[in-house]
Recover the amino acids of this structure.
């Protein structure tokens, strides 16, 4: 079994990993990336060249040392934008502090109670790929497979993960028709992708020992009805890997997945063992800073910005029923609030068979939150139903 030592270069602030890959422990591979020089490894014409043979494609496993979701999303995007994957494939492994991450085309208010998240200090992030909403914490491992577009292969990537789980922990998993990884019929991994030219990536999650109570609480949305064309998540029952094997842990899983990736042929799912391992670029601990990744902080600022997280939300209308009492009778009204680019627009109240009437509010033009919606609802509940009916009748 290979062993590893973590060493710190005397003239560098980042870490490198020494992986000893032969049985006699006499040959070690030290991989320290020169990121500034290695990016944009294309030919003079700016086009990516095809490798002379599949054997020329080397692999690296990048392990991010950050737990900040915006930094990790920025690092993922930086690698996607700047690397040439013609002769070099990369697997990035990363974890985050508690957060909810929605897909690029999703409405975060349809996926979670954003106000509740903010009050609890849980970040809401929007990634650059499609797919549904997921909860991250340090018990969840994220895997990003980078290749050029022509070699994008989601099935290959998922099989790397399932083979690693079986080889290291004897856990047998399956890949569903939706490209989720399931364990005993429950989901342990969701998947999404970014397909561009010339590069592409496929990323997925692995639930190791994620806090299920926090996960369920984070993804409970407000009771209001949201009408939108945004992509909706498909809810599925979940399972942690530790539910079936208590010995599973993040550091060992990182090692298992990394070695499975490095020992497997770059194109075909052929296990070539130690011979291929010794030819790879190995494991690299990544310190995602501006010094090593110029422009990274600007990308992070974009991912952390309100404009990206909420301003990119597709236009939607939020509706909530209000019960008002008139003597011994209840009257039902509906509040409607239009939201575009995350900003509150027109607000209406309506009754069946009546034209909606506008609600005058200083909230128009303000950033939408569930708390603001519920504030309007609470204010309207203090208005008598007779006054509302009178306003509606006067609008006819």
């Amino acid at each position: 079994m290979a062993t590893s030592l973590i060493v710190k270069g005397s003239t560098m602030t980042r870490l490198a990993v020494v992986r000893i890959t032969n049985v006699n422990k006499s040959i070690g591979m030290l991989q320290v990336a020169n990121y500034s020089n290695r990016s944009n490894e294309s030919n003079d014409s700016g086009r990516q060249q095809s490798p002379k043979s599949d054997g020329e494609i080397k692999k690296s496993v990048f392990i991010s040392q950050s737990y900040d979701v915006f930094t990790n999303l920025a690092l993922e995007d930086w690698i996607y934008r700047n690397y040439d994957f013609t002769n070099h494939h990369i697997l990035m492994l990363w974890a985050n502090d508690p957060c909810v991450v929605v897909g690029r085309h999703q409405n975060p208010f349809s996926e979670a109670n954003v106000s509740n998240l903010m009050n609890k200090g849980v970040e809401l992030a929007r990634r650059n790929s499609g797919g549904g909403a997921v909860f991250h914490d340090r018990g969840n491992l994220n895997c990003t497979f980078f290749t050029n577009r022509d070699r994008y292969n989601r099935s290959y990537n998922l099989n790397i993960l399932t083979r690693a789980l079986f080889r290291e922990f004897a856990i047998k998993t399956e890949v569903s028709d939706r490209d989720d990884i399931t364990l005993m019929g429950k989901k342990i991994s969701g998947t999404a992708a970014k397909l561009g030219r010339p590069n592409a990536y496929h990323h997925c999650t692995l639930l190791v020992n994620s806090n299920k109570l926090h996960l369920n609480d984070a993804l409970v949305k407000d009771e209001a009805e949201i009408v939108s064309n945004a992509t909706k998540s498909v809810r599925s029952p979940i399972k942690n890997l530790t539910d079936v094997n208590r010995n599973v842990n993040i550091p060992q899983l990182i090692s298992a997945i990394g070695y499975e990736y490095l020992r497997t042929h770059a194109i075909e799912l052929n296990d070539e063992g130690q011979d291929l391992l010794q030819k790879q670029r190995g494991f690299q601990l990544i310190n995602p800073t501006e010094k090593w990744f110029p422009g990274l902080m600007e990308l992070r600022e974009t991912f952390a910005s309100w404009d990206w997280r909420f301003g990119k939300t597709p236009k939607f209308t939020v509706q909530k029923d209000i019960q008002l009492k008139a003597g011994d009778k209840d009257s039902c009204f509906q509040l409607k609030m239009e939201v575009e680019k995350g900003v509150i627009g027109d607000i209406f109240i309506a009754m069946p068979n009546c034209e909606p009437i506008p609600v005058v509010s200083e909230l128009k033009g303000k950033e939408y939150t569930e708390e603001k919606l519920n504030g309007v609802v609470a204010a309207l509940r203090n208005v008598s139903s007779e006054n509302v009916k009178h306003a509606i009748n006067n609008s006819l």
Q: What stands out?
A: Residues 154-169 form the longest helix (16 residues). Confidence is low (pLDDT under 50) at residues 1-46. The radius of gyration is 25 Å. The chain has twelve helices and 20 strands.
